[in-house]
Amino acid sequence: MAQTLVVPTPDAHDQWMSLALEQARMAPATDDVPVGAVVLDSAGAVVGAAPNRRVADSDPLAHAEIVAIRSAAETFGHYRLDDCTMVVTLEPCLMCAGAIMQSRITRIVFGAWDPKAGACGSAWDVVADNTSPHRLAAVGGIREQECAQLLTDFFRARRAKRVE
Question: Which of 21, 68, 149, 153 lies deepest, with the highest CB count within 10 Å?
Fold first, then answer.
């Protein structure tokens, strides 16, 4: 039986971003950049979640989105995350946007825009320019200030440590 995809409202986006922000707040404990991601199934239930883990895992690929996708794929027992939504505190980079498309996620909801490395409308827009038969929607700027402030505070503290 096919499930019905939840049609998100601005309130749903806000609630979903709370979950991603919880993940992001865990990252600095391992000196990782505070980015968090969750994957929601078609009913809006969390099936994968993660903070950035590049430093913690000594893995340059361990962006929050990649780790959350792996978790969701494990939950489902396969790589196709049809009718799922990725919610992430920072606009996905080129690698992560590609992974999101390859996993067949239907929607990306993100917080802060990333003009240096974002691939959903800032530096690139691989989602809109996608020639793949798999299409997905992207919504950015959800709780943008709050998401951006986490990053600003993290990097300000990191710079202050270098001066000491």
Answer: 68
